[in-house]
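DNA-directed RNA polymerase subunit omega
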Amino acid sequence: MDFKKIDAPVNTTTIDKNLVDAPTGNIYEAISVVAKRATQINSEIKKELLEKLDEFATYNDSLDEIFENKEQIEVSKFYERLPKPHALAIQEWLDDKIYFRNTKDTEE
């Protein structure tokens, strides 16, 4: 997923509780769904970042010389400027981009 295209706030913002719990009717259930999605987003971002930083890795036994690569620094700064995973997840939730289902309802 392309997280650069999601219009999530970088800073902390206040969100109306009624908007968050509207799809489920239960704020705790809504927060649980958003938290699970935030965990997924975090692992995707981490995997993508590690793949990009792995391109810059040098494998040598000498710890005397540490090279600073400007491209590597720019990649790191870019990922630091991205909105946090919980902000991305809540924005997806408010935009109805997260599919969820209650397993208790399907069993009955």
